[in-house]
Design goal:
Layout lengths: L1 H12 L2 E4 L7 E3 L2 E10 L4 E7 L5 E9 L2 E9 L7 E2 L8 E7 L4 E6 L2 E6 L4 E4 L10 E3 L5 E7 L2 E8 L2 E9 L3 E4 L5 E5 L2 E5 L7 E5 L7 E5 L2 E6 L1 E6 L2 E7 L9 E4 L5 E5 L2 E7 L3 E4 L1
Antiparallel strand pairs: 1-27, 2-3, 3-26, 4-5, 5-6, 6-7, 8-9, 9-10, 10-11, 12-13, 13-14, 14-15, 16-17, 17-18, 18-19, 20-21, 21-22, 22-23, 24-25, 25-26
Length: 285
């Protein structure tokens, strides 16, 4: 009997998983492999300014045009759903940007009719600023401070909001896109160049050239900075000399957002693609 049990245990120990050499991925980022797990179809416009909250909900702006002209609508794809939904309470066609304060579980929308906040209980947005406070972009730093941009005589100016007042940042102006990482470094696109204004410096640094045709998003995951602007590029925060292009992107991209596990969505015309990390294994006996 002891010999029989020993043979069973020995045989069980010989059963293990090994990587499958034939396993295919849709794209790679460094050593990570990703496959498309879901496709979320929009109303035909480009998804921009996409964000995950910590619950796995996806917020994004859909930009497009119809017989009434251009429109910008904020939408949500709830966790475990594949259908984008409108957000009640927001003005129609003039929601330009989204910012998520993950420390305080708050979602903000910059619109043509003021700044709105999202109520998770009612699943509606309510006005939290003066109705004539029209801003374009909104971003939040790691301390919860809100930064907005406003077009003044054709120049996009950046302001820190302090209650109902705002303080202008003159070192950040005439920019096209902006994002703030978890170290309070400001990344922005201006004149088809990517810049960073580090929290320890007073002047921005040029990082490299990017393609920009009116839609782009800067996003972060761990120590990497990603830029979705027609193509998809990234670099490591501690090595800004080399911007790498990610291959196998199906078409022009307009947005990128990461969840807390490193999975992400890409915005393309008429859809969002949800990429998940994968490890393909074969059972080896």
């Amino acid at each position: 009997m002891k010999l029989f049990i020993l043979l069973l245990v020995t045989k069980a120990c010989l059963c293990f998983d090994v990587p499958a050499t034939s396993c295919k991925s849709d794209l790679s980022i460094d050593n990570d492999k990703y496959n498309v797990s879901e496709t979320y179809h929009t109303d035909g416009g480009y998804p921009t300014d996409a964000h995950f909250d910590d619950d796995g909900n996806i917020f994004y702006i859909e930009a497009g045009s119809n017989f009434n002209g251009y429109y910008f609508n904020a939408r949500i794809i709830p966790l475990n759903s594949t259908t984008p939904q409108n957000i009640p309470g927001l003005p129609d066609g003039v929601s330009y940007s989204i910012a998520i304060d993950k420390n305080n579980k708050k979602v903000y929308f910059s619109t043509g009719d003021g700044i709105f906040s999202y109520d998770y209980e009612t699943q509606k947005a309510t006005l939290m600023s003066k109705p004539n406070a029209k801003f374009n972009m909104i971003s939040i730093d790691k301390d919860g401070n809100k930064y907005v941009t406003k077009n003044v005589d054709g120049i996009e100016e950046v302001y820190l909001l302090v209650g109902e007042s705002k303080i202008r940042f003159k070192t950040l102006e005439a920019l096209d896109e902006m994002a703030i990482d978890n170290k309070n470094n400001f990344y922005f696109i201006r004149d088809e160049k990517l810049f960073v204004l580090k929290s320890t410096l007073s002047l921005p640094i040029v990082l490299g050239n990017v393609t920009y045709d009116g839609m782009a998003q800067i996003s972060f995951y761990e120590e990497r900075v990603f830029v979705a602007s027609s193509n998809l590029t990234y670099f490591h925060e501690n090595d800004t000399r080399f911007m790498k292009i990610i291959n196998n992107i199906p078409e022009k991209v307009s947005a990128i957002a990461f969840d807390k596990d490193g999975n992400f969505v890409l915005g393309l015309l008429g859809k969002l693609l949800h990429y998940k990390k994968h490890q393909c294994y074969l059972r080896k006996n």
